[in-house]
Specification:
Layout (H helix, E strand, L loop, with lengths): L10 E3 L12 E2 L6 H5 L21 H8 L2 E4 L4 E6 L4 E6 L6 E3 L15 E4 L4 E3 L4 E6 L9 E3 L2 E3 L10 E5 L4 E5 L4 E9 L14 H15 L4 H6 L4
Antiparallel strand pairs: 1-8, 2-3, 3-14, 4-5, 4-13, 6-7, 7-12, 9-11, 9-14, 10-12
Length: 235
């Protein structure tokens, strides 16, 4: 008898009383920004004999970054008041859980964002992955919100199965900024830890490798969708 191997799964767990209250994590591919949806693949206004008029909508690396992993949304609406050219940040919310707390500035001494103070968004989803899998948490890729920027980090979510909160810097101009419930907070990208430890090799390319590089580049310029058809093809 042949048994199908179970596909690895990432789990997002919440407290029973939070079910139906917290906005749920969403696959990144289901949360495409509106500006990207409206963007044509070819901007005919810029289509000329010397320009293809292609937009980023035809860029597979951009789209892959946009659609990889999951988006973890903000649990409730938060108000961030930025003052003193970003050096002072106060926060407020009406939810019955803590949404924002502060990190001490000495914890990031020398960081390029200083003198902006570091803060921390509180998250109420526990994330679990199979043995050997971790999660990379990054600011939502290609989704800049111009108000805050989460700090990237990796957590071994196969063993650390508790709440993970997310440090951030407020990057908006002075004033009060409202972050609505469901605002993309971080992008969660699960990965196998073993895949991050590939040994490196630095060398001069061979003639065959140079020929391949040039062939791929020319195929890409030819506009026949080489990357979509061949680079992403199953191996």
């Amino acid at each position: 008898m042949i048994f199908a191997r179970k596909r690895p799964t990432i789990e997002f767990l919440c407290r029973p009383e939070d079910h139906g209250v917290l906005p749920q994590p969403v696959p990144a591919k289901e949360m495409i920004p509106d500006w990207f949806k409206r963007l044509p693949a070819i901007d005919k206004a810029h289509l000329t004999p010397t320009s293809s008029g292609l937009t980023v909508k035809r860029c597979m690396p951009f789209l892959d970054a946009l659609t990889t992993g999951w988006i973890l949304p903000l649990a409730a609406s938060v108000r961030l008041e930025v003052a003193d050219n970003g050096q002072t940040v106060n926060s407020g919310w009406d939810f019955d859980r803590v949404m924002v707390s502060n990190h001490a500035s000495h914890q990031v001494a020398g960081h390029p964002m200083q003198p902006r103070p570091p803060g921390k968004f509180h998250n109420y989803w526990t994330i679990r992955t199979p043995p050997g899998w971790s999660c990379l948490f990054v600011p939502p890729l290609n989704r800049s919100n111009r108000v805050f920027e989460a700090v990237a980090g990796i957590v071994d979510t196969d063993s650390y199965t508790s709440l993970i909160h997310f440090p951030f810097f407020a990057i908006g101009p002075d004033g009060v900024h409202v972050l609505e419930k469901g605002t993309p907070l971080v992008q969660v990208i699960p990965f196998k830890r073993a895949d991050t430890h590939l040994p490196g090799e630095i060398k001069v390319e061979t003639p065959a490798e140079a020929a391949m590089r040039q062939r791929i580049f020319r195929n890409t310029l030819a506009g026949n969708g080489w990357y979509r058809k061949f680079a992403r093809a199953p191996r």
